[in-house]
Design a protein that fits this description.
35 strands, 2 domains, seven-stranded mixed β-sheet, four-stranded antiparallel β-sheet, globular, Methylamine Dehydrogenase, Chain H, alpha+beta, 3 helices, about 475 residues
Length: about 475
């Protein structure tokens, strides 16, 4: 039996009306939403929002490392950025009507009802939980300063498995507690039904990089491994593409490994640039890290052997989606044409490198070699003109730029940017840069999560705020 066109149209309009009323919702199952740490979700929140509940712990987070030095005496630079600030708030994940976070104070992972903010369960370990847990297939995965990686049931908190990568069992004092000499401070990344994590602390001691079976926690089957590494300090959430695992090292450069077998590929950095614990992979596998340089910078790492590092001075964070790059600095947010901007930045660095080499050759030439001097001078002038054209094209990549005092965190939810700052959060229209909403909080808004019609904000006071549509 065939339906009349009018009936089909009525059914179609009914479906469209239902979709418009319910909206599109999405989970946030791991730190910064996904294994690329993109901080991007397709979910749109209806603005304005109102605070529905807030959790205020008795004590604030206890970071693993002391704050940065007040200034670099050698370089004569003040206002240094923290290079290992991955645990200064209780970062949340959210799936369905639950949220989870780990605590560096009571050494537990907590599950809260997202509707009410009431605790459903907690699982206590033998050490601080410094990195947000990961949800996968009804399970919660996380690492602890006691040296173990854990898997528990997401609904009940019942232990499914735990594994200690280190071959030794030695404890040392840290922040008034006894921790493993090989704490698990990378969290647990889930991909290809494998659980990836590391146990590491000091570069003069060995470290372990692991890929365990996500169901059993065992190192059995294809693609599992427990690699012993040296001269590394693997910490903060790891990242993964389809082929590569990226591990951050705080003061050291990011390390890269083949995800299939854990074989080291190398480290990426240059001089003082490249450290820190902030990083993301763009949709086209551009690896960006930063906040580990003198006064803050993002590093666009080499994509090919011929490319140089690109340093984005003063940049705090970047969110890339659909060919757009939202660049956050201390005082503003800018929207850029991402592929073109990155390509031109690389071209500019290559031209600059060529010019530097020619200048060096020119300085060494005997003044009597006039022909060679003339030839080199002409090449240098040509490169200068090319660089000028590139810089002009770079300005054309800018779509908008707006002042913004919220400079501590940034995510993209549908067509809205949420930015966290000192005692405030703001919503910014991603198409125009216009601020659409703001709200006060206590402390620094370091963590932002959007899931299932809610915005969760994590502060350095340890507080977690939940905002919903009015």
């Amino acid at each position: 039996m065939k339906m009349r066109p009018s009936i089909c149209l009525i059914l179609l309009l009914s479906c469209l009306s239902y979709s418009a009323q319910t909206g599109y919702t999405e989970d946030w199952p791991t730190y910064q939403h996904d294994n690329r740490r993109s901080a991007v979700t397709k979910e749109n929140l209806k603005l304005p929002l109102k605070q529905s509940w807030a959790f205020h712990p008795t004590l604030p987070p206890q970071p693993a490392w002391a704050r940065p030095a007040k200034w670099d005496a050698y370089a004569e630079v003040k206002g240094l950025k923290a290079m290992r600030n991955y645990d200064h708030a209780y970062y949340t994940i959210a799936v369905g009507d639950s949220i989870w976070f780990g605590s560096s104070v009571d050494d537990a992972v907590h599950c809260f009802d997202a509707n009410t903010g009431k605790e459903r369960w907690s699982y206590i370990t033998g050490g601080a939980i410094r990195v947000a847990p990961t949800w996968h297939d009804g399970k919660i995965y996380f690492g602890s300063d006691d040296g173990n990686a854990y898997c528990v049931d997401a609904k009940t908190g019942k232990l499914i498995w735990k594994v200690k990568p280190a071959e030794h069992d030695r404890l040392i004092p840290n922040n008034g507690k006894l921790i493993s000499f090989w704490p698990c401070r990378t969290g647990v990344l889930i991909q290809n039904n494998k659980a990836y994590f590391a146990a590491s602390l000091l570069p003069w001691k060995e470290s372990w990089l692991c890929a365990a079976n996500a169901e059993t926690g065992k190192f059995e089957g294809t693609g599992t491994y427990r690699q012993t590494l040296y001269k590394m300090t693997l910490e903060a959430p790891m990242l993964a593409s389809s082929t590569t695992l990226y591990a951050l090292q705080g003061r050291g450069y990011p390390a890269m490994f083949q995800i299939a077998d854990g074989k080291p590929i190398g480290v990426s950095g240059d001089g003082r640039q490249g450290g820190g614990v902030y990083a993301l992979l763009t949709e086209d596998d551009e690896f960006v890290s930063g906040q580990g340089s003198l006064q803050g910078a993002l590093v666009l790492h080499k994509k090919k052997a011929s490319n140089e590092l690109v340093i984005l001075e003063g940049a705090q964070r970047i969110v890339a989606s659909g060919g757009n790059a939202y660049l956050q600095s201390a005082k503003e947010i800018a929207l850029l044409d991402q592929p073109r901007f990155f390509s031109l930045q690389r071209k500019n660095i290559e031209l600059q490198e060529q010019q530097s080499k020619l200048n060096a050759r020119l300085r060494k030439l005997d003044k009597k070699k006039t022909d060679e001097i003339k030839q080199l001078s002409e090449q240098i002038e040509k490169l200068k003109k090319e660089r000028k054209q590139v810089n002009q094209s770079l300005t054309q990549c800018l779509k908008w730029r707006v002042p913004c005092s919220q400079s501590l965190s940034l995510i993209l939810a549908g067509e809205v940017l949420f930015a966290g700052g000192q005692e405030s959060i703001a919503a910014i229209d991603a198409r125009t840069g216009q601020q659409r909403w703001s709200a006060p909080i206590e402390g620094k808004a370091l963590g932002l999560t959007v899931a299932n019609n809610r915005l969760f904000v994590s502060s350095d006071t340890g507080a977690i705020y939940c905002f919903e549509a009015r």
